[in-house]
Amino acid sequence: KEINEQATSVRNTLTQREHIQEIIDDIDEGIQRICFVACGTSYHASLTGKYLIESLAGIPTDVILASEFKYSANTLNDKTLVIFISQSGETADSLKALDVANETSKTLGIVNVAGSSITRRAEYVIQTQAGPEIGVAATKTYVAQLTSIYLFAALLAKNTELLEELEKVPDFIDEALEDIDFIKEISKRYNYARDFFYLGRGYSYPTALEGALKLKEITYIHGEGYAAGELKHGPLALIDEGIPVVVIAPPGDSHRKTMSNLEEVKSRGANVLAIGSADDDALKTKADDIITINPEVNEIIAPLVYVVPLQLIAYYITLEKGHDPDKPKNLAKCVTV
Ligand code: F1P
């Protein structure tokens, strides 16, 4: 249900545009550095934020895991904006980091749960409009976080082209949900595996991490996301006959190199499941299976759309295995200790 509500989640969050512009008008002056702080899925949304803000607005941006904040955030000052991304707004590590950041810097919370601790303690707040999320694994709140981050980055960079493109995302997501039967069939065929790899470059790298996290969280299958160019620095040793490798390959600057990484794993016997454009004939000839995204979205918008089939793959494998996708073992929706 929550996976299916993602177009609405994006559409409703896009209504925050004016509020985000007001925040930017208020804080823009003098900000020399941005630092995202988050955990889990929210961390992956933050990583996408780094790529966007650095490439569109040219502001140096770091991403710090909330649990590592006290060890690594030693150079914050009043020219730093620290952005806390959290679905619940109650994650203990993020709250501790927020109290520290408030002492030196401007702080902004991007939070789904209204009235939560982060919304009360951060200087500025963007409320994502995903509605309540019951499933422990974040899905519709992830695309809502991304939507807020995209709006923030596009407004900061005064990038009207991206702002226009964002309006189309709800329709792109609905289209991505159309080929469910094929994804179900794929999930049946791939559920034999004990390990999965997810590869992506640039904007698709955080998507690879998020696809692997969804798999781990609800199917209990081991999944690792890698920046595709990192493969040859170690993980390639693990690629063997029949290992599923999910390659996220939207059209754009990263595509050519992603294809050569695909070939590297294919030549070592991997079972390649690619996600790419319906017009990508080269991808069709090289991958074993391909989930096509139609109409085509470019690699900058892709994180908002390509994550949907990855969530669905994890969901259907979970059903195949007879687990409850909403209540994975050992995990809590909100980590308050
Ligand atoms: C972070 C998070 C979630 C994950 C799980 C545990 O929470 O890691 O991404 O799905 O529910 O917590 P939050 O700070 O975004 O609420």
UniProtKB/TrEMBL annotation:
Keyword Cytoplasm in record: yes
GO terms assigned for molecular function: carbohydrate derivative binding; glutamine-fructose-6-phosphate transaminase (isomerizing) activity
Localization (cell): Cytoplasm
GO cellular component: cytoplasm
Keyword set, alphabetical order: Aminotransferase, Cytoplasm, Glutamine amidotransferase, Repeat, Transferase
EC number: 2.6.1.16
Subunit structure: Homodimer.
Function of the protein: Catalyzes the first step in hexosamine metabolism, converting fructose-6P into glucosamine-6P using glutamine as a nitrogen source.
Name under which the protein is recorded: Glutamine--fructose-6-phosphate aminotransferase [isomerizing]
Gene designation per UniProt: glmS
Residues represented out of the complete protein: 258 to 594 of 595
